[in-house]
Amino acid sequence: MSTDPTFGNPFLADGAWRRGNIHAHSTNSDGARSPADAVRWYRDAGYDFAALSDHRVVTDTTAFASADFVTVPGIEMHGPDPATGERYHILATGVHGFERSDDTWSPQEAIDRVTDGGGIAILAHPYWLGQSAHDMRGLRGYAGLEVFNSVCDVTRAKGFSGLTWDEHLLHDGLTWGFATDDSHWKHGAEGRGWVMARTADFSPAGIVAALRCGQFYATMGPEIHDLRIQDGAVRVQTSPARRISVIAARARGSSRLAAGDPLTSAVHDLNGTERYVRVEVEDDEGKVAWSNPLLV
Ligand SMILES: [Zn+2]
Ligand SMILES: [Zn+2]
Fold first, then answer.
1. Ligand 2 center–CA 36 separation, angstroms
2. Among all ligands shown, which has an atom nearest to the Cα of 183?
3. pTM of the prediction?
């Protein structure tokens, strides 16, 4: 476990904020846009980086990168999930060393192949898969899970995996929460969930390093402007919100609802039993932002 105070807290890190989506499909798997069109959509929408994550294949996107737009090699891997009896879905970003995944790989082998090549593995859409934190307890080395997956929200109302994340945080230690579109270009899922990474190194390796260290927050739109633990309290500043929640282990934590004017800040006085804290911000359209957890 890192003792670096910026671990999981981009607000204490240096660098610029970079908006990116790391889960999208192209015609190289079951997406309806070509790789070039899929990446162009994100660039034109104002994103700073994007990864295509086609099923079982790393799509080469290097030709679509430019000085102000970074592409990162990605993949979504599948194989038998011994816990659920179905197929696992493991998203990977910063993939090097293989161009295709193999459905004979166990979940742990898939994670290890990604991390051996310097990438990060993320447990995709656990709620939609019916995958509990208990199912995943034997796995090691993944960077986090998708706390929000847009296409699972749009098509099945199973996009939000905050409960699963808290189960992980209670039992397994720190793990990060990612928001993604999982765009297939058929369901209107694009542009609804992304990460804001903070890094001084605007390169594929710099983006992956920031994601690995939790130097990002996930959002559907609301902004988190600052988050720190100071003088025995969690202090957060946000864009206008109807609700700001500080979520902690078991019965701990607090949630504040706007009464009249929107909220733009919240303070949670720590009582020493929270174990971890993470912040959720909800705006008046029901869009949510999620900080990464901090140990307290
Ligand atoms: Zn999937
Ligand atoms: Zn997918």
1. 18
2. 2
3. 0.97
